[in-house]
């Protein structure tokens, strides 16, 4: 924080704390310069900031600067670029919005249709919003406004600034748990769009357990349009190579759901026998399916994302924060006898 | 729409359609007055509106009015007061946000903790937002800014302006469906907070089928903190009075979920035998439970709410719109043999 912003922040707090009534004369720049130990020019610029924010107003000649109001709401508007429709992202956005409100800011949601993304992003630069959190649109150009991503990686692409769950740790600890229940005949399922860190974490745990070529146990869905059909194809492939598998770790709750459905279609009673695990703890999937999953703490991701975005707006400091994941419902993992 | 706004709207469209390049001189007020058949004062006020919006700017003496930019984004900010965390409300907000974006507006979400609601509402009046949709906070004071409610009624309180599903119709048509499957030994479950219109619709259908005192078949949960416990108490009461009931119509998917869980706890196999019905088609409840429910079309409610709010902002016209409900998953209602 520079000197000007430091003085402005101090004065903002004094105004908010009720030190000055609306309408009264505000201390002169000379008084402020002396009090804060800065030069007149700095004090003048801090006062100009508060005038621009609508807290102070310049009086007529000889009147000096007057207090207009003692706090500004919202302090700023920030945007969330991404869909908020899915229960998981609804929770991320809710955390973001709640922390924005904690800081007297307002969070806007912007979910443009893909074909309009470019034109909306250009318009957003002049919208008055001060910065963005972004999820599900890859890398976006909002320059000169800062953008914070809510994923650490998608495919092989890495985001410069992010707050996201620690996907590697999530995959690693889930696989450790599966191994601890005695499973060795293990397969994994992911899609081409799954965060590869999740699978890397799982491979690492398998390698540490002395299993060779863990990546050969991964079955990848190349298509997600018709998940039930494509997971059936992939499941058949897995069953052919590992006919007696006792654990199936997946890269998402959604895959786990379709996997369970297809195991049942094939007449394979998996409950209490095969350890199917998900990823995400998505409200409406893992709440009703008897599977263990990885809780990514979506509310916390959104909540911390607002904080990180503020840092970017105020100081431009790079933000790379991992939120720890947590295993949920591990009691659904059966022991291998 | 007044004359001034009419002229402004026409000019806004011309600017957006690319009739004038940024930087060129805009037609004089005299020219505009003649073209639109209004007096100079009206033309002047329409131009002043566009200046205030940032589309035009006053040039130096003799330069006239110049085109600053050809469209403004966002045209306005609107607010959604209410939690967007629950999957149902996430979808309502998503519809609201999508339609806002269709109209070059930006939707903000504001979910204050109840104890801060009053102070946030006061602050919102000066926030620059132009109007609000509101859900789950009862009647709120946002005057002079308009507010549209996303419920038609809660308890006995009626909202002045609303877009909401037709609760009466939903309850009525679900009960008609239950009756059509041959059920006569019917009970109903609601909470004190349930929209009474839902139950009134159910009563109406029962009355039309010649059943006397349908309200005696309604069991109300007085407490929702510990739903599993309280629905068990209420279920036992219902079973005592109607030990052989074949249908249980509830006022929400949530009640239906806890009801199913408790029937199972009591060893009562309900699937394929007792018609349990929900209300809401909440993603993550009725998607996974084999029950019929009432689809309230939350996306459409949010989508239409933006439209209605625009009308309130632009013309102040009262808005009372019911969105039709639709029965979903009625194949789960067993026939009475």
In CATH, the homologous superfamily of the largest domain in chain A goes by the name: Response regulator
The counted number of beta strands of chain A is 16
Q: What is the subunit arrangement here? A: homodimer
- Most extensive interface, chain pair and sizes: A-B, 38 and 38 residues
What share of residues of chain A is helical?
25-40%
> Which class of the largest domain in chain A in CATH terms?
Alpha Beta
- Shape designation of chain A: elongated
Q: Give the count of structural domains of chain A.
A: 3
Structural class of chain A: alpha/beta
Q: What portion of residues of chain A belong to β-strands? A: 15-25%
The radius of gyration computed from the alpha-carbon positions of chain A, rounded to a whole number of angstroms, is 26 Å
The CATH architecture of the largest domain in chain A would be 3-Layer(aba) Sandwich
At CATH level 3, the topology of the largest domain in chain A is: Rossmann fold
Number of helices of chain A: 10
The main sheet of chain A comes to: 4 strands, parallel
Termini Cα gap of chain A: 61 Å
Instruction: Write down the overall mean pLDDT of chain A.
Output: 91
């Amino acid at each position: 924080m520079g000197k000007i912003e430091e003085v402005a922040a101090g004065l903002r707090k004094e105004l908010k704390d009720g030190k000055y009534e609306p309408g009264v004369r505000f201390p002169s720049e000379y008084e402020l310069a002396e009090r804060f130990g800065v030069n007149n020019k700095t004090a003048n610029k801090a006062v100009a900031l508060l005038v621009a924010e609508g807290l102070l107003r310049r009086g007529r000649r000889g009147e000096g600067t007057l207090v207009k109001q003692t706090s500004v709401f919202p302090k700023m508007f920030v945007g969330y670029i991404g869909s908020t429709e899915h229960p998981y992202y609804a929770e991320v956005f809710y955390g973001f919005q709640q922390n924005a409100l904690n800081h007297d800011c307002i969070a806007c949601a912007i979910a443009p249709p893909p074909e309009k993304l470019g034109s909306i992003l250009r318009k957003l630069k002049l919208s008055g919003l001060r910065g963005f959190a972004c999820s599900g649109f890859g890398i976006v150009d909002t320059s000169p406004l800062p953008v914070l991503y809510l994923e650490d990686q998608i495919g092989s692409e890495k985001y410069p600034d992010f707050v996201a769950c620690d996907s590697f740790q999530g995959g690693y600890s889930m696989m450790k748990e599966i191994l601890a229940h005695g499973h060795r005949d293990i397969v994994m399922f992911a899609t081409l769009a799954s965060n590869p860190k999740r699978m890397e974490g799982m491979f690492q745990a398998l390698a540490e357990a002395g299993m060779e070529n863990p990546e050969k146990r991964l079955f990848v869905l190349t298509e997600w349009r018709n998940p039930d059909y494509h997971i059936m194809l992939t499941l058949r492939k897995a069953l052919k190579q590992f006919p007696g598998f006792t654990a199936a770790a997946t890269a998402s709750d959604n895959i786990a759901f379709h996997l369970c459905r297809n195991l049942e279609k094939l007449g394979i009673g998996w409950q209490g026998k095969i350890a199917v695990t998900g990823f995400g703890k998505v409200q409406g999937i893992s709440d009703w399916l008897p599977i263990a999953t990885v809780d990514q703490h979506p509310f916390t991701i959104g909540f911390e994302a607002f904080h990180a975005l503020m840092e970017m707006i105020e100081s431009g400091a790079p933000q790379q924060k991992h939120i720890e994941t947590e295993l949920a419902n591990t009691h659904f993992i059966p022991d291998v006898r």
